Description:
By secondary structure, the chain is mostly beta strands.
Amino acid sequence: MKRIIFIIGLLAAVIILPIIGISCSTDKSNASLGNEFTLPVGGTAIISGENLSLKFVEVTGDSRCAKGNECVWAGEAKCQMLITYSGSSSDVVFTQQGGGVTVQDFLTQYKASFTVEPYPVAGKKIAPSDYKLVMTITK
């Protein structure tokens, strides 16, 4: 009887927890130097063979000129990142200027080419969880 109750409870947890937003997913993905990958907010990319990982923590500001608006300044999007290299972690801000691809150096030997998506549209709000980075890491 105890075994049946345990199995029913386990099945209920597997079905109900994802519905209410609790997941066992780690949002970690493997990537490699020179290859494009997409990183959602909260996601971590582990760069193969480099002892390097990048976690996209959050967008801390998005002032990019929305499609449909005329702006004097193209604006920028700032993304808080947690970079871990050889067991040591540091916070880094990646800043995309305007709407093009941005290249930013980090940890002296790496370059991140990235865009922040989605791009703003006049009259539409972007939910914090909808942001993602499309990026390529090189040396």
